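Customer escalation, tier 2.

The customer says the design service returned an amino acid string that "doesn't look like it belongs to this structure." They asked us to rerun it and document both sides in this ticket. The original structure tokens are below, unchanged.
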């Protein structure tokens, strides 16, 4: 299978809703951070990528038709080079809203994580985002810098920007598929995340 869409937006920009939507549109699995939890053998590969080592992206992502969320979004330029026909999707939201959501979910949950998973995440943030995700100003600066880099670096013909309220239309237009007669999925609110992920680490 060849990846048809690469999500360049970071976590907490509607990425799990996008995963659900893309699996509906494409009929194939979409890679997401939750997928790494199901495939711990992927952790050393993402850690190697964070160290700047070459990764066989086609082999890693072969079973998937799309990839969204961290860690894939941190390496969107390399993945985009490996899949030159794939759409590059920048999902985003206002910086204050993103910080509130991320700090109450992902970044808080990280405090209870150790071992190879935490080492991989720390290396990814340090090399591709910021090591100081617990600092609001530095995290927001990294978020805004990431989005600027995507807008500046992605070929205009391949780049699609998307916000949660945009729904199906931009995705369907970019992928050349019809708009389904279904409500757009809205999943993984802050409350959903805390119930699903953080209670497991308590």
């Amino acid at each position: 299978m060849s990846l048809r869409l690469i999500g360049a937006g970071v976590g907490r920009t509607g990425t799990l809703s996008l995963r659900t939507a893309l699996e509906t549109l494409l009929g194939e699995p979409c890679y997401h951070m939750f997928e790494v939890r199901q495939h711990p053998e992927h952790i050393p590969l993402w850690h190697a990528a964070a160290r700047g080592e070459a990764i066989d992206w086609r082999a890693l992502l072969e079973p998937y038709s799309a990839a969204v969320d961290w860690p894939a979004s941190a390496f969107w330029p390399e993945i985009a080079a490996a899949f030159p026909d794939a759409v590059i999707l920048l999902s985003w939201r206002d910086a204050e809203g993103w910080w509130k959501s991320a700090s109450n979910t992902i970044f808080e949950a990280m405090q209870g994580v150790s071992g190879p998973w935490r080492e991989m995440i720390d290396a990814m943030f340090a090399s591709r985002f910021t090591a100081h995700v617990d600092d609001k100003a530095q995290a927001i600066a990294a978020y805004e810098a990431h989005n600027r880099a995507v807008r500046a670096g992605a070929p205009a013909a391949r780049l699609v920007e998307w916000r949660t309220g945009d729904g199906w239309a931009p995705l369907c237009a970019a992928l050349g598929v019809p708009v389904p007669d279904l409500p757009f999925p809205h999943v993984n609110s802050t409350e959903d995340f805390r119930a699903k992920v953080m209670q497991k680490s308590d």
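Tier 2 assessment: The sequence is consistent with the input. The longest strand covers residues 87-91. The chain has a mean pLDDT of 93. Sent an explanation to the customer and offered a walkthrough call.
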